[in-house]
Design goal:
Length: 369
């Protein structure tokens, strides 16, 4: 396969509802949309970096710079036997996994389109619909939180994750347990705690949560291992697992019992598959994380989630929770049983509404060999 042209767009869309984490509240999402052309087909990808460096060090502007100056020249006009060859070919650039994934992921779509196969078939996936959960941000009141949870359960979602931070944690969980009973429930702290909060985090044990996601620092493994030794609730790592090696180290150290896979964090589909396979060998279940993606990134995530060890519900919810309208037409929907069908058709299997994409575009550049 040969990539002849890379188009980069900076895009901004309003969120259907604000989203608040321990980093703060957002009403819009700014991200990059990438398009690759080659061998008579075109493919889309999305860069999950945000306009701030709060979840990760990368931002939309660092990704733009790295792609334009370094990554695009490393792939343009070069023959690759398989999209697996992309990530190693970008190896001179250290880090910048979100920027790399924004090129590597559409390369898989391009390859699948050239072969006229759906992306999940290229991956060797085993599911046609993905069990979906939702991630509910910090709200203004517990009553508002309960309203959100009730609406999501009504839509069928198979597990509820709430964002927590010191002061919005134990009370919120106890309140949801009292109101909704034994629903599949978990929390995500986005690194809002330290080991000094061990007693507070251990107090969550009595609420039988599925897991606590990323309680401690974004790049920490050792303290998570110490914490996991003191709490019964499984720890799931997100931010800390920035590479397959970090995943291996975390498993070896006992820092987590579950891993959240986001291809943007790992550098694309190939590295995500490697981590998925490693976790399967080591008996660690994984689930697909979300980054408030548009339908483009969301479709990629659904295809990846067809691999067998994605055995827990993912943050792969319906388009209408995020953007209305989405950049794809039709949007991705959840079924009454709380699963999201994997788009059929070749490549990522969704239709990008190019007029909508054009209207949402703030800046655009075309790169060629
Ligand atoms: O930590 O999983 C996270 C969104 C943006 C950045 C980080 C995270 C999230 C979510 C939302 O939890 C998941 C989604 O619904 O896309
Ligand atoms: Mg998370």
């Amino acid at each position: 396969m040969r990539i002849e042209r890379v188009e980069l767009r900076l895009v901004r869309l309003p969120l259907v509802r604000f989203f608040e984490t321990s980093f703060g509240r957002v009403y819009h999402r700014t991200f990059l949309v990438t398009r690759l052309d080659g061998d008579g087909v075109s493919a889309y990808g999305e860069c999950v970096a945000d306009d701030n460096p709060f979840y990760s060090a990368e931002t939309t502007e660092t990704a733009w710079h790295i792609i334009q100056q370094f990554l695009a020249p490393m792939v343009l006009g070069i023959d690759f036997a398989h999209p697996r060859a992309l990530f190693p070919a970008l190896g001179r650039v250290r880090g910048h996994h979100m920027a790399k994934a924004a090129i590597e992921m559409p390369a898989w779509d391009l390859y699948a389109r050239q072969q006229q196969r759906p992306l999940h078939a290229v991956f060797g996936g085993v599911r046609t619909a993905i069990p979906a959960g939702v991630s509910i941000g910090i709200q203004d009141s517990l009553e508002q939180l309960a309203d959100r949870v009730a609406a999501e359960l009504q839509d069928g979602y198979q597990r509820i994750k709430i964002k927590v931070k010191p002061g919005w944690d134990l009370d919120a969980v106890a309140f949801l347990r009292q109101r909704f009973g034994a629903i599949p429930l978990m929390v995500d702290a986005n690194a809002a705690y330290t080991l000094q909060d061990t007693d507070r985090l251990a107090a969550l044990d009595e609420h039988a949560l599925m897991m606590i996601e990323q309680p401690l620092d974004y790049d920490d493994i050792r303290d998570h291992a110490r914490l996991q030794a003191r709490v019964h609730t499984p720890i799931c790592l997100d931010e800390s697992i920035h590479s397959v090696r970090a995943g291996r180290d975390a498993i070896d150290e006992g820092a987590c019992r579950i891993i959240n896979i986001k291809p943007g964090r790992l550098g694309g589909h190939a590295e995500s598959i490697r981590l998925h396979d490693l976790c399967a060998e080591r008996g660690i279940p994984v689930w697909h994380g979300g980054m408030l993606e548009s339908g483009i990134g969301r479709a990629h995530n659904l295809h990846l989630s067809t691999l067998p060890n994605f055995s827990l519900p993912g943050d792969v919810a319906a388009s209408k929770r995020y953007y209305e309208p989405d950049l794809i037409e039709p949007g991705i929907e959840v079924q009454p049983d709380g699963t999201v069908p994997v788009p059929e058709g070749i490549g990522i299997g969704v239709h990008v509404d190019v007029e909508r994409l054009e209207r949402a575009t703030l800046r655009r550049v075309e790169l060629s060999a």
